[in-house]
Amino acid sequence: MGLLSLGTPLAWSDARELSEHVRIHGIEQFLAVWRRLRDRQGDAALWGDELEYMVVVLDPEQKTARLSLRQGEILQRLSQCCCSDVPGACPADMPTFHPEYGRYMIESTPGRPFGVAGAELLRVERDMLVRRRLTRERLRPHEVPMTIGSFPRLGVTDTAFTDPPHEARGAASHSLFLPDEIINTHVRFPTLTANIRQRRGSKVRINVPIFHDTHTPKPFVDPTIPWDRHLFPEDIEAREGAAWPDHIYMDAMGFGMGCCCMQVTFQAASIDEARKLHDQLMPLTPLFLAVTASTPAYRGYLADVDARWNIISAAVDDRTPVERGEAPFEAASTPGAHNSHTQARRLRKSRYDSSDSYLQVYDEARVCNDVAIEVNEYVQQHLRDAGVDEVLTAHMAHLFVRDPLVIFSENIDLDDNTSVDHFENLQSTNWQTMRFKPPPPSGSIGWRVEFRPMEIQLTDFENAAFSVCITLLTRVILEFGVDWYMPVSLIDENIQRAQQRDAIHTQRFHFRCGDAPTTREYTLAELFHGTSNFPGLLPLVHRYLETQPLEAKQRATLNEYLDLIGARADGRLMTNAAFIRQFVRGHPAYRYDSVVSEEINYDLLSTLDAIERGEKEAPGLLPAGYAARRQGI
Ligand code: GLU
Ligand code: MG
User: Fold this and answer.
1) Ligand 1 site, residue 316, Cβ cutoff 6 A
2) Which residues does 117 contact at the CB level (< 8 Å), separation at least 6?
């Protein structure tokens, strides 16, 4: 999740004094790249995914599932993988493994980007499986790399949930529930955690509605919160309103950034093509969040949502009370508030949230940019003066309303023609559903867009299916010239609907209908399969595939992927979230009180692991024959 500079990070009190410096030079760095590479043309259609894993220790004797905190050692071992570990591979094929926020997390990316031709798309699942195998081979006997979105018992207080166990209430997060030891040990991560808290002026506040089952108390008042004792200052916030009744309360960045997802990045032929892809993929972000929903449990409870989005959003919400609209402007001098260079202002959203504006210079894009976005005036003026168009200017000036969170003392004065560190500092901590990515200064790769909403899926069959489907949709967008512009405010609304429990069956989504920029509300089944006034995403993909020279076997595999997504979208198969919820509620030890006990958690995770390995079928979740297919690869 972003740039890992080495060095000494500044505490918030020092970092905030330098925030204007980072913005001024960050935008200069962007301009240097833009001037040099805006006319770059003809980059190949290449893409790649990022998969995030949790390393879980499954102890069959104790019947416990705990998070392994061995990220450092595991990554060290993974960095030594070589071609002899993968039959037929050359060095360029070797996947790479990266650290993530949680010290129990690993991220993988393919060694070589994928193309968009049939043979290339068929490489994806095998590549993902190789990454999983390489990881698994470097773990201890009971450790398993799991592609699950949220660890259901992260932050419980009745038993340990990490291996080894640690005490909460660390210096970085002050959390009642999460020890700082779950944070990646690279200084960037504890600093990010502490600086978000300090800038905000309190701990982050995450309240997820609890799933009210038949025996869940009403109102639900979480018994694991220390309501009546406050031995520590950090206990007070929960008592004084931070923790809401009928909600699962969480108070640390790790509850959000400790979730896993799958992101896909596409290289475009030119900056204009990147802007077009950015815009046309934006309305798809909620739809793919809903069909990939996989995170129904937090801190030992079933939630009334199926997806992680709002949780991460709140987990990194560094806005001050004034910016959040919870305090009057006169309060701008509260702890953590702005430095003297920045005016206090309201900010509608957290740094992690849905994208706020389209990027194409195009009348329809302009009309559909219906949300008034906050901009940094200096950046806006500077980009205008440099000749950047209004739309791109607004996008960048909007990203630059944030403060840089982590600044390294060794990295303050940089050459703005060769470095993009200051630009990336802001860019990589604006976690939106889409990210528009300029080429690196070296120009070794082109303009790119990243599709970021999807939740990670249990199996690589599913992960391949969803990433290949989005890739094929980029082809549909470019080849068929579709026009899916719709008001940004309605996409925002869709992002909320996408997270609702069982959104597939209960929600409708705004989507563009016909030629005029009018919208209607559709079910996911209608959007994916088509209806009288919308051709449907999957039929469009099939129509595109008809134009491609594909071997029968390639087409058959692609059809398996598209069929899986079709079945998820219309409810013939469950989402990962629905499956997990059903497993918990069907467990003999479940008391219909929303609690995911240690025993249930162990059985759930060991069952999910057996399904992934193809040792157990998962009717209702995966197509019949998945197990045999998995074992045959
Ligand atoms: N794990 C985060 C998520 O679930 C994303 C972190 C990243 O940007 O890599 O969205
Ligand atoms: Mg990541």
Assistant:
1) no
2) 548
Helix (H) or strand (E) segment spanning residue 322: helix 321-324
Last residue of some domain: 422, 451, 480?
451
The protein residue whose alpha carbon is closest to atom 8 in ligand 1 is 1
* Per-chain residues with Cβ under 5 A from ion ligand 2: 1, 107
Q: Is residue 5 part of a domain?
A: no
Give residue 402's domain range.
Answer: 12-43+161-258+299-451
pTM above 0.85, yes or no: yes
Q: Which amino acid is at 262?
A: M
DSSP type of residue 344: -
Model pLDDT, residue 418: 95
- CA 599, 605, 609, 610 torsion: positive or negative? positive
pLDDT digits (tens, 9 = 90+) for 499-538: 999 999 999 999 998 777 789 999 999 999 999 999 999 9
Nearest to 233 by CA among 205, 203, 207: 203
Of all ligands present, the nearest one to the C-alpha of 431 is: 1
Residues 524 and 610 in one domain: yes
Atom of ligand 1 at shortest range from CA of 50: 9
Q: What are phi and psi of 463, to 5 degrees?
A: -60, -40
**107 CA from centroid of ligand 2 (Å):** 6
Q: What is the DSSP string of 524-585?
A: HHHHHH-BTTB--HHHHHHHHHHTS---HHHHHHHHHHHHHHHHHHTTSS--HHHHHHHHHH
> What is the tens place of the pLDDT at every residue in 384-408?
999 999 999 999 999 999 999 999 9
349 plus 413 within the same structural domain: yes
Q: Is 261 in the pocket of ligand 1 (CB under 6 A)?
A: yes
For atom 7 of ligand 1, the residue with the nearest CA is 1
In ligand 1, which atom is closest to the CA atom of 308?
4
Ligand 1 centre distance from Cα of residue 257 (Å)? 6
How many CB atoms are closer than 10 A to CB 561?
22
Residues 307 and 267 in one domain: no
Please check whether residue 1 lies inside any domain of the structure. no
Kindly state if the Cβ of 252 falls inside 6 Å of ligand 1.
no
**Residue 493: exposed, middle, or buried by beta-carbon count in 10 A (0-12, 13-18, 19+)?**
middle
Q: Whose CA is nearest to atom 10 of ligand 1?
A: 261
* Mutation test residue for ligand 1: of 108, 151, 257, the one with most atoms within 8 Å of CB: 257
pLDDT at 340 over 50: no
